[in-house]
Amino acid sequence: MAEPWEDDEVDGPVRKFMYVNRRAPYGTIYALESLEVVLIAAAFEQDVSLVFMDDGVYQIKKEQNTDAIGVKNFSPTYRALEGYDVEKLYVEKESLESRGLTTDDLIVPVQVVENDQLAELMEEQEVILSF
Amino acid sequence: MPMLHTVNKSPFERRTLDTALRHAVKGAAILLIEDGVYAAFDGTVVADKVKAALSDHKIYVLGPDVSARGMSEHHVIDGINVVDYGGFVDLVTEYDKVQSWL
């Protein structure tokens, strides 16, 4: 008889996780920490959504080059999320526009949403983690 | 020479730049570093305020922090000077003192 930990069914329920990213990269550790937690949740095959709003939209700005500041450029990792089935990436429209950015400036394909759509998406989640 | 004010917080998240500008005398310089560099880019909701400040202050932005954030000189507002680390040191020696707004 299989031990519980050998049972495929112990995978547990799939929950809807949303990660809300509101900080710029590099100035603080929030962006990198969020990305690491996202990858962990993805490894557990959860239903993961990412939101980039406020200064969080800068996390996925194209063409980041950190050579001169001596910090690892973690932005290419956002492109790898697709490989972990993390494909629900939302960007708040107002945050993008107030920073003079468009989706052409972003390193990954995203869905641009308005405030009220984002509020609805948040209501649909089971767990929300804010960084 | 008056003083050099450094600002390292995003103008979208904190009021640090406003505070620095409010306490900078005419002729004092502003150096934008770390997340403060986001104030230096054109096309944002804070760009007009920063352009207005250029009439009273020289404004500098640290190039390595600009590149790290995926931006380049062509995003920088006309009239703001991009400096490297050596330029940062030059500014510190050129002005009487430095106030670091954190």
Condensed summary:
The complex is a heterodimer of chains A (131) and B (102). Chain A is 26% helix and 18% strand.
> What share of the residues of chain A lie within helices?
25-40%
Low-confidence stretches of chain A: none
Number of domains of chain B: 1
N-to-C CA distance of chain A: 43 Å
- Helical percentage of chain B: 25-40%
Structural class of chain B: alpha/beta
What's the tally of helices of chain B? 4
Mean pLDDT of chain B: 97
CATH-defined fold name of chain B: Hypothetical Protein Ychn, Chain: A
* Greatest interface by residues involved: A-B, 25 and 25 residues
CATH class of chain B: Alpha Beta
Proportion in β-strands of chain B = 15-25%
Strand order of the largest sheet of chain A: 4-3-2-1-5
Count of beta strands of chain A: 5
What does this structure look like?
- The complex is a heterodimer of chains A (131) and B (102).
- The longest helix of chain A has 14 residues, at 30-43.
- Chain A has a single domain (16-130), classed as DsrEFH-like (Hypothetical Protein Ychn, Chain: A).
- In chain A, helix 1 (30-43) links the parallel strand 1 (16-21) and strand 2 (47-52).
- In chain A, 26% of the residues lie in helices and 18% in strands.
- Chain A is of the alpha/beta class and 131 residues long.
- With 102 residues, chain B is α/β, with parallel strands linked by helices.
- Chain B has one domain (4-101): 3-Layer(aba) Sandwich (Hypothetical Protein Ychn, Chain: A).
- Chain B contains four helices and five strands; from the N terminus they run βαβαβαβαβ.
- Chain B has helices spanning 16-22, 47-53, 63-68, 85-94; strands at 4-7, 29-32, 59-62, 81-83, 98-101.
- In chain B, helix 3 (63-68) links the parallel strand 3 and strand 4 (81-83).
- Chain B is globular.
- Classes of the chains: A alpha/beta (131), B alpha/beta (102).
- Chain A binds chain B through residues 23-28, 54-55, 58, 61-69, 71, 73, 75, 98-100, 105, and chain B through 8-10, 12-13, 34-35, 38, 41-45, 47, 63-65, 67-72, 84-85.
